[in-house]
Automatic annotation (TrEMBL):
Family: Belongs to the PlsX family.
GO CC terms: cytoplasm
UniProt pathway: Lipid metabolism; phospholipid metabolism
Enzymatic class: transferase
Official protein name in the record: Phosphate acyltransferase
Reactions accelerated catalytically: a fatty acyl-[ACP] + phosphate = an acyl phosphate + holo-[ACP]
Pfam families: FA_synthesis
GO function term, MF aspect, one: phosphate:acyl-[acyl carrier protein] acyltransferase activity
Organism: Cohnella nanjingensis
Keywords: Acyltransferase, Cytoplasm, Lipid biosynthesis, Lipid metabolism, Phospholipid biosynthesis, Phospholipid metabolism, Transferase
Entry's EC annotation: 2.3.1.274
Length: 329
């Protein structure tokens, strides 16, 4: 299998992308890693040796974090992100991974890779952390700010297939993000979506509240991109604030510093547990190829995790299964 990495996208690019690719190439020699980007920036990072299953694909332009997504994709045809997307489209790569501009990657998915037949709105689906370390696949968390009930039904079906194919989960429970668990709760969108999800061929467990997500009250969380992105940012902010407060308390005086030294291993484990990037990247489900969005601050470990995730999805035939579910390519 061949996996294209947008080597220029992300806060720590290209170093994190190259280091993650090298680690993945060493662990999975049967996988060809294609580093897409500027050779003059990538080659010095390979000075210690390039494995035979790592190749550089030249792309001389870069989509910046503040570029307008659609305009950038259309005007920067030789950017690392667009070239990687084109490789997926043309069958030169089985998947692409990028930690770059999220909006631009959505545009690449739609304008370059293209939608799967039968899918109206692709959804961004990261795995949110849970107390049992299994996680909740949530979609959509930001690809589309507006959604129709039919889109939420498609998210539920795609999320179910992803959990089955990539995570080996049988009969994943699907929950609808809402302000209460009662069937009649919510706005017009969630009420209409509930009526579509209830008879659908999925294991629908009804409405779920945001406060229960960390306890994994469902395996697939369905929501529109506006509410989902607020949920994601609120979780990120809460986790960051909690650790900031803990740091201030543990450095207040010599007694708390001693306590911090004793508790540090446990605190590191908690921090890792709450980091959703540990589960890899977020797939853009609904496009006609495997597109994975890494966090902008992805380090080498996160890049390697995203490659592992892509390998599993490719090996288990995720995209063909989605194409069959929604009417073929």
């Amino acid at each position: 299998m061949r996996i294209a990495i947008d080597a220029m996208g992300g806060d720590h690019a290209p170093q994190a992308q190259v280091e993650g690719a090298l680690a993945a190439a060493k662990e999975w020699p049967d996988t060809e890693i294609l580093l897409v980007g500027r050779p003059d920036a990538i080659e010095p990072l390979l000075a210690q040796g390039k494995p035979s299953n790592v190749k550089i694909v030249p792309a001389l332009e870069l989509i910046e974090s503040d570029d307008e997504p659609v305009r950038a994709v259309r005007r920067k045809s030789d950017s690392s992100m667009v070239v990687a997307g084109r490789m997926v489209k043309e069958g030169e790569a089985d998947a692409m991974i990028s930690s770059g501009n999220t909006g631009a990657l959505m545009a690449v998915g739609l304008l370059v890779v293209g939608r799967l037949k039968g899918i109206e709105r692709p959804g961004l689906a990261p795995v949110l952390p849970t107390l049992d370390d299994i996680g909740v696949l949530a979609l959509d968390l930001g690809a589309n700010m507006d959604a129709k009930p039919e889109h939420l039904l498609q998210y539920a079906l795609m999320g179910t297939l992803y959990r089955e194919k990539v995570h080996g989960m049988k009969k994943p429970r699907v929950g609808l993000l809402n302000v209460g668990t009662e069937a009649a709760k919510g706005n017009e969108l969630t009420k209409a979506a509930f009526e579509l999800l209830e008879p659908a061929p999925i294991h629908f467990v009804g409405n779920v509240e945001a406060r229960d997500v960390l306890e994994r009250n469902c395996d697939v969380l369905v929501c529109d991109g506006f509410a989902g992105n607020i949920l994601l940012k609120a979780m990120e902010g809460a986790a960051g604030t909690i650790f900031k407060v803990l740091k201030e308390e543990f450095t207040a005086n010599w007694k708390t510093k001693i306590a911090a030294a004793l508790m540090m291993p446990g605190l590191r484990r908690v921090r890792k547990k709450m980091d959703y990037t540990e589960h890899g990247g977020a797939p853009l489900l609904g496009v006609n190829g495997l597109v994975i969005k890494g966090h902008g601050s992805s380090d080498a470990v996160a890049v390697k995790n995203a490659i592992r995730q892509a390998r599993i999805a490719i090996g288990n035939g995720l995209i063909p299964a989605l194409a069959d579910e929604f009417g073929g390519k």
